[in-house]
């Protein structure tokens, strides 16, 4: 357990002569599969991801960078879990959202060793993934954070009243972090939508997916589309005819709340049911 004083997230700065290759990416809530030396351990929390490069006029030294990163992590009370190459049969199983959407923090794990460190604090853990190459590096820093449910159940009659009144209804379906998998605690909401459609056989609904503004634009677009399709697929499997539904993703566009707070971001991560003819 470490009680070393730390500053604000992401806690660590790069050594002199080194800089982020591109603007770092931060996510208020996400997940990352950390390599423990024997398996991938998926951890949820606040994320910081960045490529690392040498500043102009500075010669990149993988040895120098490695020594500096290891020194500052040890100073913070971190314990190293592994410094080893992830086997090909394991990297082949990396989730697509990590390989594509989190490449900034993942780095070249296919050709270089991965260092995994963890700082255990009384109230949280801080995980660090560091991959060092000959000409650049990548790292991910994650502070563990409990999942907070943002979904609220609207029963079938409330959904119908809202759609009859405004032509649409907003539902907050919970999905696995940064994925399209609908979590079991949202099944009652899916059941309510199913009941609404079965009680109103002429009703057709567009299922529109939205995210908050955390993450890259292209990633948010793809994620929102995948989540909308997941809802439609689940409704079809419950007996709703496919021609009564259509799915579309809108990423972080059209927010219904400010993205400067956790509550606002939770409201923006939503599914809208829009009536169409």
Automatic annotation (TrEMBL):
Cellular component terms (Gene Ontology): cell outer membrane
InterPro entries per the UniProt record, alphabetical: Bact_OuterMem_StrucFunc, OMP_bac, OmpA-like, OmpA-like_sf
Family annotation (Gene3D superfamilies): OmpA-like domain
Residues covered by the OmpA-like domain: 162-277
Tree of life domain: Bacteria
Main location: membrane
Annotated compartments: Cell outer membrane
UniProt keywords, alphabetically: Cell outer membrane, Membrane
Listed PANTHER family: LIPOPROTEIN YIAD-RELATED, STATOR ELEMENT OF FLAGELLAR MOTOR COMPLEX
Name recorded for this polypeptide: OmpA family protein
